[in-house]
Amino acid sequence: MFGFPICKRCGQPISGRYLTVLGATWHPEHFLCAACGLPITETRFQLHEQAPYHLACYEREVAPHCVYCGRPLIGEYLIDQWAKIL
Fold first, then answer.
1. Is the pTM above the cut of 0.85?
2. CA–CA distance, 19 with 73 (Å, rounded to integer)
3. Residue environment code for 51-67, b if the CB has 16+ CB neighbours within 10 A, otherwise e
4. How many DSSP H helices and E strands does the chain contain?
5. What are the pLDDT digits (tens) for 28-80?
6. What is the Cα gyration radius of the chain?
7. What element of type H or E holds 61?
8. Distances (CA, A) of 8 to 11, 14, 23, 27
9. What is the number of alpha carbons within 13 Å of residue 83 lying toward its C-beta?
10. DSSP state of 55
């Protein structure tokens, strides 16, 4: 007989709804953003140093920002000869 999956965050069995993300199972309320600490309920999120982030939190807290326009840089970007991110 199979047991209930175990939540990676709290270590307790999950008898209801659960998420399978990053190779683990989680209570939905325990899959948290590393920046704001709130549950990630969207289907898309950003991973940084093995920690999940809401897309907006990642852009605000982690992503480098362009020195000219100040917008967050997601994906590929250039660093000029003066080490400024473009």
1. no
2. 29
3. ebbbbebbbeeebeeee
4. 1, 4
5. 999 999 999 999 999 999 999 999 999 999 999 999 888 888 888 877 766 66
6. 17
7. helix 55-61
8. 6, 10, 10, 8
9. 0
10. H
